[in-house]
Amino acid sequence: MERLGLTPERLTRAGAEMADEVGFDAVTVSALARRFDVKVPSLYSHLKNSQDLRTRIALFALEELADRVADAVAGRAGRDALAAFADAYRDYAREHPGRYAAARLRLDPDTAAASAGVRHAQMARAILRGYELDEPAATHAVRMLGSVFHGYVSLELAGGFDHSAPDARESWDWIVDSLDALLRDRSSTP
């Protein structure tokens, strides 16, 4: 086993790659063992079970996406920050559909609280500070952004916009502009 250099991190990354290739639902310890041409029991020294593998992939994807979003929004404010956040989210989902699905995995409360999912919410709130929303409007806005971005990306990944004009990118930009206008309208400043 050591000669293969298998570690939990290497197995997680391989599982994430597999998720992008065959879909997150198809990633199991058995499938991963086949990929490395080893017997399933040999992976149990690194992983507890398939749920442990799936959780590790989810945490990896959340971290990877948070890093990408943080890089995209750095130094931006207002509509520019909102668009950079949205584009990073959409681009990641399109480039890594299996990892994106993994990032949606329901985690237990302690694992979720220690995950990069917290960074996602913090970045959304940082962007929204520019719109000067009071509570509970800021929380509503975080939820709205997540819902709109996830809904759009999910429909797009499923081919929901392939059959008609205008181009999906044009609609995406229109949605970001509309969200920006709505958030400016909801601003708590007089």
Brief write-up:
The protein has 190 residues and is mostly helical. It has helices at residues 8-22, 29-36, 40-43, 50-73, 78-95, 97-103, 109-113, 117-129, 137-157, 168-185.
Structure description:
This protein is mostly helical and 190 residues long. The chain is built from ten helices and no strands. It has helices at 8-22, 29-36, 40-43, 50-73, 78-95, 97-103, 109-113, 117-129, 137-157, 168-185. The longest helix has 24 residues, at 50-73. It is elongated and about 60 Å long. It starts with 7 loop residues before the first helix and ends in a 5-residue tail after the last helix. The model has no long low-confidence stretch (mean pLDDT 93).
Taken from the alpha-carbon principal axes, the silhouette is: elongated
Let me know the number of strands.
0
Q: Please report the distance between the alpha carbons of the first and last residues.
A: 65 Å
Largest sheet: none
Multimerization state: single chain
Mean pLDDT: 93
Q: What proportion of the residues form beta strands (DSSP E)? A: under 5%
| Unreliable sequence segments | none
Structural classification: mainly alpha
How many distinct helices? 10
Q: Please give the share of residues in helix.
A: over 70%
Q: Can you write the helix and strand succession as a string?
A: HHHHHHHHHH
Please state the CA-atom Rg, rounded to the nearest Å: 19 Å
Question: Which secondary structure elements does this structure contain, and how are they paired or packed?
Answer:
Layout: H1 8-22, H2 29-36, H3 40-43, H4 50-73, H5 78-95, H6 97-103, H7 109-113, H8 117-129, H9 137-157, H10 168-185
Helix pairs in contact: 1-4, 1-6, 4-5, 4-6, 4-8, 5-6, 5-9, 5-10, 8-9, 9-10
